[in-house]
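Technical note accompanying the year-one report. For the benefit of new consortium partners, we illustrate the data format agreed upon in the data management plan: each record pairs a sequence with a structure-token string. No post-processing was applied to the example shown here.
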Amino acid sequence: MSERTEVQVRPGVEEDLDALTDIYNHYVRETPITFDTAVFTPEERRPWLLSHPVDGPHRLMVATDADTQEILGYATSSPYRVKPAYGTSVEVTVYVAPHAGRRGVGTLLYEALFEALADEDLHRAYAGIAQPNEASTRLHERFGFRHVGTYREVGRKFGRYWDVAWYEKEL
């Protein structure tokens, strides 16, 4: 059996909060992939989790190891902007546990996320990718995202400025 077949994807639930927070906090502490600069407690992340129900346009999909049920990563679709006219647009993202990279987890998560969103009243998905991040760029392009522009030096973290490349996909 390949490693890819050992991963299952399902909607996220409240019991996942500790593991999801741990994964996210790794990226907060160690990378410019997120522009958050302070780690979160699970309680601080609870509103984020609850803003992604099991139906509707704002979803949370979780990848788990089929044998151990360890959470290997997650993908979300979230509001693109808060104003009503943006309601048919979502921002999507994927976070994979540091030890679970290169197993196809991100691909499985996006496959499940976009399948779940297929019947929603959505027009576009957007993804902001802090640069450089070749793996994320490849993942998004594989799913039909196209580069629409780059915000130069838009975020400062670890004592330097970072660009964010923006990608869009028709839904």
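Partners are asked to follow this layout when depositing records. The chain has a mean pLDDT of 95.
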